[in-house]
Amino acid sequence: MTLDLRAAKRRLVVMIVINAAALAAGLAALIGYFRFHLDWALAAFAVLIAVGIGAQIWFIAGLRRADKGA
Q1: How many CA atoms lie within 13 A of 64 on its CB side?
Q2: Could you report the per-residue pLDDT of 19-63, keeping only the tens digit for each?
Q3: Other residues' Cβ atoms within 10 Å of the Cβ of residue 38
Q4: Per-residue buried b or exposed e for 20-32, using 16+ beta carbons within 10 Å of the residue's own CB
């Protein structure tokens, strides 16, 4: 089974958008934690890190599933 390049590109774009959103929100959470002393912002930052890593794992898992030999 060969890799569907259109589906892989779509997954890549979705992963990039999720990571960009998580990065922006993570930076806002860090600013909230350090500048405004909001304790919940550190937990939000940790969750956003997990979301970004999860998006990357989702992308790689999709590539591996599409191309069984890789």
Answers
A1: 6
A2: 999 999 999 999 999 999 999 999 999 999 999 999 999 999 999
A3: 14
A4: eebeebbeebeeb
Domain that holds residue 57: 19-66
The model's pTM: 0.88
3-state helix, strand, coil in the chain (%, to 5): 85, 0, 15
Q: How many domains does the chain have?
A: 1
The answer to whether residue 59 is domain-embedded is yes
Q: Is residue 46 part of a domain?
A: yes
Within a 13 Å sphere around the CA of 39, how many CA atoms are in the beta-carbon half? 0
The label of the residue with tokens 């929100």 reads: 25
